[in-house]
Specification:
Layout: E1 9-13, H1 23-31, E2 36-40, H2 54-72, E3 77-82, H3 86-96, H4 98-117, E4 123-128, H5 136-156, E5 159-163, H6 169-182, E6 189-191, H7 198-204, E7 207-211, H8 214-221, E8 228-230, H9 248-258, H10 264-279
Parallel strand pairs: 1-2, 2-3, 3-4, 4-5, 5-6, 6-7, 7-8
Helix pairs in contact: 2-4, 3-4, 4-5
Length: about 280
């Protein structure tokens, strides 16, 4: 089967030339048949600084965009996602307090929006709240930042990749309502690291993005095809292969296709049409 026939998109991947395998990881993705990635910036500490100044976020964004250009030289289409990771924001809250941390983080969102308006990036993210237990004060600050990001995304009509703890069905309604309250259509919200709750996601408008594990995708397919696939590969030599490896999205997709669990039309829906719907872009391969 000629893999180049199909769009194969990793909706959420990190590439790190300093701490990880860098372009070698991208080459693995390409050899497995992948052709499109959504490159999400890491934390400022991954480049040896900390998110307590806007300048550090500017450096992080610029480095991520430059990395995207080098990846495209390998023949991979790159869409860049820029934002303030909740773990980074939590660190900022601890280091400099709520008032200053919120101001810098909001300014970093504004900066990311500028890159999106200049067509250098396509979405805000990953934004939300930490995936680990934190205090109510931290959650409240995260919600203030997320509401601000949703509001800005609504103003410039872009998507937001959402990072949270594991959520149940009620979580989809919570974030859908928050987005709509901020003036952002819930159809522009992507739940990164989503559970395979395809029906409830469709009801709320949120687009679920699933970790590319065979059992996960098979569970999702019981409820429909309205989902995206991601590796959430963090590209850290200390955690090799986490969350799943860079080959996972094309490999799992093509294996399911060969085994008859999905059709060629399904591949186009998951890896092209759903992507185009939520991000408002065209996928070419």
């Amino acid at each position: 089967m000629a893999t180049a026939t199909f769009p194969l998109t990793d909706n959420h991947i990190h590439i790190d030339e300093l701490n990880g395998y860098g372009l070698d990881a991208v080459k693995k993705f390409k050899r497995a048949g992948g052709n499109t990635i959504f490159l999400v910036n890491k934390l400022t500490k991954d480049m040896g600084s900390s998110g307590v100044t806007l300048e550090n976020f500017h450096r992080l964004y610029e480095k991520t965009l430059a990395l995207g250009e080098r990846i495209e030289e390998l023949g991979i289409k790159v869409f860049t996602v820029l934002g303030v990771h909740p773990a980074e924001f939590h660190f900022m809250l601890e280091e400099i307090g709520r008032v200053e941390a919120l101001q810098i983080a909001k300014d970093a969102v504004d900066l990311a929006c500028g890159f999106i308006e200049d067509n250098k990036a396509v979405a805000l993210g990953e934004l939300g709240r930490p995936h680990y237990e934190v205090s109510k004060d931290v959650i409240d600050a995260c919600h203030e930042l997320l509401f601000y990001a949703f509001k800005k995304a609504g103003e410039i009509d872009c998507a937001v990749q959402l990072h949270t703890e594991s959520i149940g069905e009620s979580g989809f309604y919570e974030f859908s309502e928050l987005a709509e309250k901020a003036g952002l259509s819930s159809n522009r919200v992507v739940k990164h690291f989503s559970p395979p709750f395809i029906e409830v996601a469709s009801k709320t408008g949120i687009m679920p993005s699933l970790i590319s594990k065979r059992v996960n995708i098979l569970e999702a397919l019981k409820e429909g095809k309205r989902f995206l696939m991601e590796s959430d590969y963090i590209d850290d030599r200390r955690r090799s292969g986490a969350v799943v490896g860079p080959k996972s999205v094309p490999r799992v997709t093509l294996n399911l296709l060969r085994e008859g669990f999905i059709s060629e039309e399904d591949v186009y829906i998951i890896h092209k049409e759903n992507i185009e719907e939520v991000y408002g872009i065209d996928i070419e391969f």
